[in-house]
Write a structure and sequence with these properties.
It is built from eight helices and 14 strands. It has 261 residues and is α+β, with helices and mostly antiparallel strands. The chain has a single domain, classed as Deoxyribonuclease I, Chain A. It has a six-stranded mixed sheet with strand order 3-4-2-1-14-13. A six-stranded mixed sheet has the order 5-6-7-8-12-9. It has a two-stranded antiparallel ribbon with strand order 10-11. Strand 6 (98-103) and strand 7 form a beta hairpin. Helix 5 (122-144) runs parallel beside helix 6. The chain is globular and about 45 Å long. The termini are close together.
């Protein structure tokens, strides 16, 4: 089984790229982020025609998540509130960033973590508080399901080797505050970074700035992740970042990350 995560930076803009990629890669389940389209305008039929069940949660112009699966999912839920309740969720389901569903015995969680904009800022505080709700959400899911796969665009480079060059402590997406809360989540729920199971060295990234030749010069960040519960991580055969779609004309600024069991 192959499961992929990919921030496509607008599904309608990248439609030909995503369709061609799925046609040439044997992907059983694909988690998308930043789809940037309301549900009624999502190009569902294009992917149903490729043999996928389609699960979507979108909004106009921003955010949005989706799951394509060759096997019909069970236990599909959208947002935080369906798991932790509206009181704890508060405003954090207004932005469409969370979708979950079960394939075989694996509960898939697809996330688009807020960027945070800058430090300090209201958007940065929003990100930290969103991550606190995420922790409670994942703790509840862990109590319900033995095997969890949490993937998506985390907008956090957990280690210095996940960035092409060392950044100051107040740089967004690699600040001590963000790294600390994500590390706490991974530790509390016993999640493993499956990419690091197979690749220990730096220089491997999943996002590159469109500007200043970011991709051509490999000035990237590894911010798209698969985190797995321990037993599931032990079953993983490989985890790779597929650079090919990033080389195409008008690509997403992210590359897909694929884990195989």
């Amino acid at each position: 089984m192959k499961i992929a995560t990919w921030n496509v930076n607008s599904i309608r803009t990248r439609l030909p790229i995503v369709k061609n990629w799925l046609e040439t890669n044997n992907i059983d389940l694909l988690c998308l982020q930043e789809t940037k389209v309301i549900d009624q305008d999502f190009p569902q039929q294009d992917f149903k025609d490729l043999g996928y069940y389609v699960y979507i949660s979108g909004q106009k112009a921003y955010n949005g998540v989706a799951i394509f699966s060759k096997t019909e999912l069970t236990n599909v839920n959208y947002g935080f509130s369906s798991i932790v309740g509206e009181e704890l969720t508060g405003i954090f389901d207004e932005q469409k960033r969370v979708i979950t569903g079960k394939i075989n015995d694996i509960q898939i969680v697809n996330l688009y973590v807020p960027n945070g904009n800058s430090i300090p800022s209201d958007k940065f505080e929003y990100k930290l508080n969103w991550l606190k709700v995420l922790k409670e959400y994942l703790l509840k899911l862990k109590n319900q399901h033995q095997n969890l796969l949490i993937c998506g665009d985390f907008n956090i480079a957990l280690e210095d080797i996940d960035i092409y060059t060392k950044k100051p402590k107040k740089h967004i997406c690699c600040s001590p505050q963000e790294r600390e809360i994500l590390t706490d989540i991974l530790t509390e729920i016993s999640l493993k970074d499956v990419f690091r199971k197979f690749t220990s060295e730096g220089g491997h990234y999943s996002w590159w700035d469109y500007r200043r030749g970011g991709f051509a010069n490999n000035r990237g960040w590894r911010i798209d992740h698969h985190y797995l519960t321990e037993e599931l991580s032990n079953q993983a055969k490989s985890c790779i970042i597929d650079l090919e779609p990033r080389k195409l004309e008008k690509p997403s600024d992210h590359a897909p990350v694929i884990v195989e069991f």
